[in-house]
Structure formats: structure tokens, C-alpha cells
């Protein structure tokens, strides 16, 4: 009889792992709480570093998943998981399933920018997040401020909810720096005459082509970079945003009016990740992500036998890394299931 | 501005404020600078709201001025504050209210320090016992006087005879609020509305019929900070802070500024005069300044108290244009007469700033 | 007005970005496009003989003040450069730094003489 793998979360990691596991000859059930596959990627327009459409990647995972004929349960949340005969019993929506292994791919949430009260997200109309900007790109590249005018100057604030002890997130979310550079260039494509400023603490361009993007943003698009963390935003009488920042390289405080302020929100463990982690009593990293069994040698297993993790429930990740991580997890699952047969 | 967003923040910073039986600690400087305010507070508490509020003739400074200028060491400050707590305990009270934001900050800081480092509380108890023979209980509830007015703002509004509206046009008065750094910047949870979008004064203005205007430099310090203005050479920094605020609020054309803190009230009022003398600049209409009122004065005007009883003759920025706007009746001839009818003396006329008397 | 207070009103140190004159920055970007690539790494400053021995702002800080429109700051310092060109040798992003200084001088001269930039 085929072994059965139950996957929780149908984002990039979960969907990719599902089709791979079917190829390996396993029975797969994928539970997704939303009505579609792809998770947060559905909110994105284009991806760094090549600016390919996110829809291409979504089509790829959707097609593979459909072709694999893996069983997908939409609108399904997990209410309980218990151990049974060396495997697990999972209460998924109205169903009860048994599984020989579980893969958790419950992903991340974006940081709730309202927590950084000093930036006034949710209060000042012209303060938006990187996700809101991405939505503008998806909706036909129309960028307007609250007065329905094209912004003349746009500011990007890096590290909102990342590297910030005040909100309890001391870690780097990895992808926001390059996302800001990508979005800054996209803004310049749409609004060539707009001035664009990125306010950063450090620029972490770790990927192979990320540095090229950074260079292109300066050379071709004239994106400006000011090294300093924005300390507060306030609203001017005309609805524009006044920001205060130290220009640390000039060694002087600086104030600037922007028509639109974009907050680069970081990664936090998703509500689902936290919930499943608690349900199964999984070990957590100090950042409250799900903790792998070994930081170098086994990043797919957990402290619980037969329970595996993949994707951004473990740590912030790029799309490319998420794919690689999902495939790595499937190999680990195969090794586990075939090993247990002997 | 999305008001719902502000309401969400406000809802996250609500603190428990005792409903009655208060031990009142006065400010060191307010009685000289704005002498009617504390008197008005006692009158509102006792006569309007019927509350039990007690002040002890033996109470002293909290040492805030000395503490913040590095003259009084923290151990002394703690012991002096412990003595204030002892007076409260001896009189059978559990709820302390301070008239001053500095005191509120100093007391909050000490109570938090005692919580984090219990040995400092034990040491203070020992010092106090040795020095005075007194013992004390930590207040069950510690609030700033504006918290109390905030708590009873609806009752005051109902008893009031007028609202914060322009009597001629019927328009809401436009008010700028300033809470003072030590109200909630040190401990956001201890201030109504928190540090970034404090609500304590806004609640009063809204309930009394006015409109609060937010302006970009709202969060900026008034510049009072003891260390700055005590030393003459540092006053240029102090006044530059206030000036930054005036420049930022001017386009919003506020009818008046409401303040929470003795120092802010003092500086936002007096510096307008100094700036006008130094640079010829004024921030109200027709070379008037922007009147700066304490929350007690605003409550007093709402309740129909006489402006000269409220001590508004002590303001450097003339309040008469505001009183006219609100339709408050007052006798200009009595402005500089004391309670006994004798003249208090009439100040010199400024060179630039309008000052009607 | 009364002038003698024993103190004045402190001048704001804040860079007031919206008020500053950023024409010079645009001028330089036009004639030395490579200056856009400066990432403030400081290699130029480390090697600059003038910056090592005088209070010369060095090319890194000049760039920052240029971008912010603090022209007076630049004018105070620019004449200290000796055009040795070491900064250009060490720049990891290939900025034509000597040219930057030359064009800056030219631009400042034009601004002072109220000429069109």
C-alpha cells in the first residue's frame, strides 16, 4: 500500500512538495485554508531579480499540482492532530485523515505595519506597505496618492518590522532590501519623472544578481539611497508625508516631504505556523519560526518523528530558496518513509 | 488622516484611573506661572464633581528639577518621593495624582525601578525610616491630574455652560494639543492613548465641542528640559524647539494650544514673546500669538469660570481674542487686579506681539 | 525689537531637503554620470592624502552633501583637493572622481555668478 503524506499549507513550498511527492510514488493530500494555491505569491506582481511575472511561477506550480492529481482540500483548516499507529491522524475541516508523514508548509505573514505607530500606517493615507504597492502594480501599474495624483516623490523605508528589537523581531527578513530596489525601479518605469528614495540601515544584496539590480537602480533609474532609519512620519496640511531620518553619512538629521511612503514590511511566522507549531509542540527558533532538527545537516526534519517542515514557516526565504527547500524536504520524507518500510 | 486608525491606537492604550479619593501633589512652578490652574482643578474636583481630594501642607517637590539637572542623586529623589508616599499613606489615601508631568514621570520611573530592582525600594524604605521615621505604601493608582479631568470630561461637558466653538460663526475651535514628553514617551502604557498618538487632551477637546488639528511637529519636544533653559547659553536650543513647533502648526491656524505639562505651557506661551522680540515673528492672526491654555483653564472656561479667576492674566500671549471668539464675558479693567482689588502691576507692552490691556 | 538676550535662536542643523538647492547635483549627474554609483564605501577617503592631513570633507562626504543640496558645505571644502587621483584608483565602482571635483568647481562658480547651470 502506498504511504500517505499530508501537507499543511498550499503555498509555493506545499504545492511544489505535493507534486514532487506524487512523482516519487506517494499518496498526497494537501490542505489549504484559502480557495487557491500559491499563498502570498498571489499578492505579488513581478519577482526579483529578473522581474518575471509571479503569475508564471504560479502557473507552474498549479499545473504541476493538477497534473500530479494530488488530492487538494481547499478552505480547509486543521483542528487537531493526534498520533496513531506510528503515523498521524489529522482532523482537516470535516475530514479525518491518517498519514504516515506530515509536511508543514504554513508559511509567513507580513509584519503588521500598524505596530510601528510612529510611521502612521492605517492613519496617514499616503503611508502604504510594499504589499499595497505590489497590488497597485497588479492592478495595471496605476500609482496614485490619496488625492488621486501621481506622486512626485516616493520614499521606501527598509526594515519595517525587521532588525527591530522594539517589535520583538531582531532578525533580517532577507528579501525586503532587494524587493525595495526592485519596486523602486518599477516605480521609475511607471513614473519616470518621480524622485525615488530608499532609506536603509544596511543593504543586504546577498543573491547573485541582487548587486546588479542595486547598480542598475542607481545607474539606469537614478534611485537615491540614504543610509538612515526613518524615525517618524507625520502628515503635512496637504496630506503629503514629512519624514525624519538621520543622513548618517552626512552626520546630520534630515527632513523630507514625500507624496507616498512605502514601508518594506518584513516576515513573521504566519498565524497558521504558530498554531500548528503549538498543536504539535514543535521546537521553535528564538524568532518563533519552526525549528529544524539540525541547522546544517537536517533542515527538513523537526523534533517530532514523521513531521517535516518546508518554506517560510522555517525562516524568511526567496521564492528560489523556497522551491529548493520544498524539494529537499521531499527527499527527506522519502528517506523516512522508505526507511520505515524495512 | 484616517480617524479609525487613530481610534485603534487609542483603544490599545487605556489605563485604569481611580474614580475618587485622591491625594494631590502640586507642581513646583505652576503656582507662580499659571496660579489659577491648580485652584481651578481643586474647585472642579470638589465643587463640580464632588470628589474627595486632599492635599497636605507638608508636601514637597518631587525633586524633578534637581534630578533632571543632575544636582539631586536618584537615591535622594527616591527618598523624597517615598516621603510623599508616606504622607499619602498616613492620611489614609491610596490614589496619588500629580499636577506636573515631570512629577508624573519621576514617580512612574521610580515605581518601575522598584518593580525591576526591588533592592532599590528596600534601600529607600531604610533611608526614609532613618531620616524621618516614616513608612509608606506604594500608591495603588498613580495618575496625572489631566487623566482625572479626562476621566470626567463628559460630566464636565454636561455641567458646562459653553462649548469650544466660535460664538459668532458656530464653527468648532481648532485646537493643537501638546502632552509633554514625560507623560507617555517613557512609558507609553502609562499615558492615555500612548506616546505617538496620545489621546488624553484630545478626549477633552472633542467632548467639549472643539476640533483637534494634528500637525507634523506635534511629537516634537517644546524645548523646556530643565538642563536646557537653566543655563543661559543653552536657551538658544530650547527656543529653537518651540519655534520648530510654531512654524509647523502655523499653516493649520489653530485657535489655541492646550497643554498637559507646566513646562510646555510656560515655554509655548513665553517663547512666542521672545521670538517676536528677536525676529519679529508672530504665529497668530494680526500679530497676535497663539494662546496657550492649561487643561484646567480650558475646563474652567467650559464651566463658565471667570478668566481672571482662572489666572489667565498671567499669560504672555493675550487670551482676549480667544475669549471674544468664544463669547466669554470678561471685564478688561479687572485683568490686573488681585483678589483683594489691588493692582497686581501692569506688564510692559511688547514691541511686536499684540498684548491688549 | 530687543536684540540683546544673551542668546539667540539656534539655527536648525537638520538638512531641509525640500528647501535646499539641488541644481548642482543634477549638473554633476549630467556631466559625470558615474558619480551616481557612489555607495559611500569610504575607500577614497582612506587613501586621500588631503583628508588624512586636513579637515577636507573628502569625496565621499562631498557626494552626500551634493545629493542633499548643501552647496555651502561643499564650497567650503572643495579647494582643498590636490587632484592626485588616488581616489579614482581605489573606487570599487569606477567613479570618475577627479572629474567630479572639476565639474563641481565649475558648477559652484556658475552658481556664485548666477549663471545658468
Give a short summary of the structure.
The complex is a heterotrimer of chains A (342), B (357) and C (117). With 357 residues, chain B is α/β, with parallel strands linked by helices.
Overall residue-averaged pLDDT value of chain B: 95
Taking the sheet with the most strands of chain C, its summary is: none
Give the CA-based shape of chain B.
globular
CATH topology of the largest domain in chain B: Rossmann fold
Mean pLDDT of chain C, rounded to whole units?
90
Series of H and E elements of chain C: EHHHHHHH
Please report which band the strand proportion of chain B falls in: under 5%, 5-15%, 15-25%, 25-35%, 35-45% or over 45%. 5-15%
What is the count of DSSP helices of chain C, taking H or I runs of 4+ residues? 7
Give the radius of gyration of chain C: 16 Å
Give me the CATH architecture of chain C, please: Orthogonal Bundle
CATH superfamily of chain C: Alpha-helical ferredoxin
Could you characterize what this model shows?
The complex is a heterotrimer of chains A (342), B (357) and C (117). Chain A is an alpha/beta fold. In chain A, 27% of the residues lie in helices and 27% in strands. Chain A folds into 2 domains: 4-107 and 270-341, FAD/NAD(P)-binding domain (3-Layer(bba) Sandwich); 113-266, FAD/NAD(P)-binding domain, CATH 3.50.50. Chain A is built from 7 helices and 20 strands. Chain A starts with a strand and ends with a helix. With 357 residues, chain B is an alpha/beta fold. Chain B has 2 domains: 19-145, Glutathione S-transferase Yfyf (Class Pi), Chain A, domain 2 (Up-down Bundle); 161-334, 3-Layer(aba) Sandwich (Rossmann fold). In chain B, helix 8 (145-151) packs parallel to helix 11 and helix 13 (235-249) packs across helix 14 (262-279). The relative contact order of chain B is 0.13. The mean pLDDT of chain B is 95. In chain C, 33% of the residues are buried. In chain C, 50% of the residues lie in helices and 2% in strands. Chain C is globular and about 55 Å long. Classes of the chains: A alpha/beta (342), B alpha/beta (357), C mainly alpha (117). Chains in contact: A-B, A-C, B-C. Chains A and C meet through helix 5, strand 14 and strand 17 of A and strand 1 and helix 4 of C. Strand 17 of chain A pairs parallel with strand 1 of chain C, so a sheet runs across the interface.
Amino acid at each position: 500500500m502506498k504511504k500517505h503524506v499530508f501537507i499543511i499549507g498550499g503555498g509555493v513550498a506545499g504545492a511544489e512538495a505535493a507534486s514532487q511527492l506524487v512523482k516519487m510514488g506517494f499518496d498526497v493530500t494537501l490542505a489549504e485554508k484559502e480557495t487557491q494555491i500559491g499563498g502570498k505569491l498571489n499578492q505579488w506582481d513581478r519577482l526579483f531579480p529578473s522581474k518575471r511575472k509571479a503569475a508564471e511561477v504560479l502557473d507552474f506550480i498549479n499545473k504541476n499540482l493538477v497534473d500530479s492529481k494530488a488530492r487538494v482540500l481547499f478552505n480547509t483548516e486543521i483542528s487537531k492532530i493526534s498520533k496513531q499507529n506510528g503515523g498521524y491522524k489529522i482532523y482537516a475541516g470535516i475530514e479525518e485523515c491518517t498519514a504516515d508523514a506530515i509536511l508543514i508548509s504554513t508559511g509567513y505573514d507580513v509584519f503588521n505595519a500598524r505596530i510601528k505607530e510612529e510611521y502612521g500606517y492605517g492613519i496617514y493615507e499616503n503611508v502604504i506597505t510594499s504589499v499595497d504597492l505590489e497590488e497597485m502594480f497588479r492592478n495595471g501599474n496605476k500609482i496614485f496618492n490619496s488625492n488621486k495624483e501621481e506622486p512626485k516623490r516616493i520614499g521606501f523605508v527598509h526594515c519595517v518590522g525587521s532588525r527591530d528589537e522594539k517589535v520583538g523581531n531582531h532578525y533580517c527578513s532577507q528579501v525586503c532590501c532587494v524587493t525595495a530596489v526592485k519596486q523602486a525601479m518599477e516605480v521609475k518605469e511607471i513614473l519616470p519623472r518621480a524622485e525615488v528614495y530608499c532609506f536603509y540601515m544596511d543593504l543586504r544584496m546577498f543573491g547573485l544578481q541582487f548587486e546588479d539590480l542595486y547598480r542598475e537602480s542607481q545607474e539606469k533609474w537614478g534611485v537615491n539611497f540614504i543610509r538612515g532609519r526613518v524615525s517618524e512620519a507625520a502628515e503635512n496640511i496637504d496630506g503629503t508625508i514629512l519624514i525624519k531620518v538621520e543622513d548618517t553619512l552626512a552626520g546630520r538629521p534630515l527632513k523630507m516631504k514625500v507624496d507616498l511612503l512605502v514601508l518594506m514590511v518584513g516576515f513573521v511566522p504566519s498565524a497558521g505556523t504558530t498554531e500548528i507549531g503549538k498543536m504539535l509542540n514543535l521546537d521553535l527558533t528564538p524568532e518563533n519560526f519552526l525549528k529544524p532538527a539540525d541547522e546544517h545537516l537536517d533542515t527538513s526534519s523537526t523534533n517530532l518523528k514523521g513531521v517535516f517542515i518546508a518554506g517560510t514557516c522555517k525562516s524568511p526565504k526567496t521564492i528560489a530558496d523556497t522551491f529548493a527547500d520544498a524539494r529537499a524536504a521531499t527527499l527527506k520524507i522519502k528517506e523516512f518513509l522508505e526507511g520505515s518500510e524495512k | 488622516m484616517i480617524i479609525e486608525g487613530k481610534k485603534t491606537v487609542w483603544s490599545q492604550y487605556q489605563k485604569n484611573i481611580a474614580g475618587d479619593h485622591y491625594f494631590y501633589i502640586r507642581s513646583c512652578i505652576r503656582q507662580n506661572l499659571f496660579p489659577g490652574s491648580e485652584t481651578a482643578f481643586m474647585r472642579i474636583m470638589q465643587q463640580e464633581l464632588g470628589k474627595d481630594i486632599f492635599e497636605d501642607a507638608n508636601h514637597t517637590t518631587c525633586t524633578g528639577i534637581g534630578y533632571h539637572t543632575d544636582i539631586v542623586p536618584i537615591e535622594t529623589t527616591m527618598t523624597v518621593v517615598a516621603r510623599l508616599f508616606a504622607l499619602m499613606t498616613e492620611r489614609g489615601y491610596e490614589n496619588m495624582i500629580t499636577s506636573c508631568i515631570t512629577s508624573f514621570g519621576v514617580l512612574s520611573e521610580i515605581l518601575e525601578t522598584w518593580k525591576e530592582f526591588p533592592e532599590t525600594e528596600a534601600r529607600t524604605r531604610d533611608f526614609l525610616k532613618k531620616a524621618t521615621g516614616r513608612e509608606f505604601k506604594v500608591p495603588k493608582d498613580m495618575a496625572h491630574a489631566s487623566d482625572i479631568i479626562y476621566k470626567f470630561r463628559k460630566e464636565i461637558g454636561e455641567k458646562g455652560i459653553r462649548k469650544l466653538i466660535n460664538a459668532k460663526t458656530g464653527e468648532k475651535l481648532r485646537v493643537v494639543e501638546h502632552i509633554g514628553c514625560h507623560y507617555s514617551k517613557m512609558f507609553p502604557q502609562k499615558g492615555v492613548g500612548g506616546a505617538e498618538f496620545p489621546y488624553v487632551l484630545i478626549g477633552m477637546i472633542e467632548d467639549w465641542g472643539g476640533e483637534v488639528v494634528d500637525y507634523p511637529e506635534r511629537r516634537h519636544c517644546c524645548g523646556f528640559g530643565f538642563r536646557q533653559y537653566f543655563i543661559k547659553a543653552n536657551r538658544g536650543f530650547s527656543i529653537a524647539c518651540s519655534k520648530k513647533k510654531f512654524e509647523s502648526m502655523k499653516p493649520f491656524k489653530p485657535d489655541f494650544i492646550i497643554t498637559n505639562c507646566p513646562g510646555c505651557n510656560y515655554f509655548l506661551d513665553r517663547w512666542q514673546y521672545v521670538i517676536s522680540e528677536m525676529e519679529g515673528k508672530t504665529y497668530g492672526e494680526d500679530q497676535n500669538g497663539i494662546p496657550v491654555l492649561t487643561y484646567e483653564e480650558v475646563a474652567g472656561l467650559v464651566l463658565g469660570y471667570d478668566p481672571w479667576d482662572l489666572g489667565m492674566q498671567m499669560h504672555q500671549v493675550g487670551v482676549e481674542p480667544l475669549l471674544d471668539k468664544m463669547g466669554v464675558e470678561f471685564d478688561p479693567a479687572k485683568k490686573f487686579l488681585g483678589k483683594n482689588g489691588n493692582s497686581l502691576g501692569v506688564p510692559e507692552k511688547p514691541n511686536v506681539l499684540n498684548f491688549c490691556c | 525689537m530687543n536684540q540683546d538676550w544673551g542668546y539667540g535662536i539656534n539655527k536648525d542643523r537638520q538638512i531641509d531637503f525640500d528647501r535646499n538647492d539641488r541644481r548642482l547635483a543634477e549638473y554633476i549627474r549630467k556631466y559625470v554620470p558615474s558619480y551616481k554609483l557612489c555607495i559611500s564605501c569610504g575607500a577614497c577617503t582612506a587613501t586621500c592624502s588631503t583628508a588624512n592631513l586636513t579637515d577636507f570633507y573628502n569625496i565621499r562626504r562631498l557626494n552626500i552633501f551634493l545629493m542633499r543640496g548643501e552647496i555651502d558645505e561643499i564650497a567650503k571644502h572643495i579647494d582643498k583637493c590636490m587632484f592626485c587621483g588616488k581616489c579614482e584608483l581605489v573606487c570599487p565602482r569606477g567613479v570618475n572622481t577627479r572629474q567630479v571635483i572639476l565639474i563641481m568647481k565649475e558648477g559652484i562658480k556658475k552658481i556664485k555668478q548666477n549663471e545658468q547651470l
